[in-house]
Amino acid sequence: MRSLVGLVSVVAAASLYLYSLSLYLPPGPPKHSNRTSETENAGAEVSGEESEEPSRLKFPSDLEELRELAVLLQFYKTEHTGYVLLLFCSAYLYKQSFAIPGSSFLNILAGAIFGAYEGLLLACLLTTVGSTMCYLLSNAFGKHYIENRFPDKVSMLQRKVEENQDCLFFFLLFLRFFPMTPNWFLNMSAPIVNIPITFFFGSVFIGLLPYNFICVQTGVMLSEVSSLDDLFSWERLLQLLAIACVALLPGALIRRYSRRRLKLDDATENGAIPNEKKDQ
User: pLDDT-based confidence at 253, cuts 50/70/90?
Assistant: First the structure.
């Protein structure tokens, strides 16, 4: 009970901080919506009145909202660079620390706002720090609940960690490149199966680098694309091909190493988690 109260207190404090930060949002550009109407006699299209709506910040749920948020934050970045950086880092760490889905949208947003290099570095650092915070929260408050909710998965992961103690860091890299279990579960269960935090930190930074790279490059391209014709141009297709090759190369090397050194069964090597019995 004490651990549950502690976790709720941490979530409430973090939510209050993020809400308070959003209250200091500087004035932004108004949203303009143009309405067209047809004249009764000539049938010509006439520009309607401009209606101004206050800009709002919220977590994006689709690509359209993502592009609108990117444009808004790019405006803020020009006028209020420090605020945008603080807000983005706070929102990212909030989602990552509490295992809230949607970090891929924020990775794409990082590329759209900060560019390819700064966005990639920022995404990798925030992913690693946020996952480590999730690790620490699980270690402090969640061990009992995770063991009771996922007993088979935890015991299987514990067995695999013990079998690969001599090359534990590469085993953790394998789990990130070819996840046999979701990343959020690995973040939460890592302290339970006695994975050192130093190995955990390094494996997250390196292991999720290809994924972050793809998301950030997608954001860079989305910020530059103005139509579907631009998206399907030869230049864009070649960029996508190059991104895919760069992202797949580390995974291929880790997979080759894992077949020689790591102790994996067939199901694990194919990226599946072998359940002895189904979760209720």
Answer: low
Give φ, ψ of 47 to 5 degrees: -65, 135
Instruction: Give tens-digit pLDDT for 166-177.
Output: 888 888 888 887
Total Cβ atoms within 10 A of residue 241? 10
**Backbone torsions φ then ψ of 52, nearest 5 degrees:** -100, 130
pLDDT value, residue 192: 93
Identify whether the C-beta of residue 144 lies closer than 8 Å to the C-beta of residue 113: no
43 close to 75: Cβ distance less than 8 angstroms: no
Per-residue model confidence as pLDDT tens digits over 49-60? 334 444 556 666
Q: What are the distances in angstroms from CA 68 to CA 21, 101, 181?
A: 20, 20, 33
Burial (Cβ within 10 Å: 0-12, 13-18, ≥19) of residue 153: buried
Question: Taking the model in full, what pTM does it have?
Answer: 0.74
* DSSP character at residue 83: H
What element of type H or E holds 197? helix 197-207
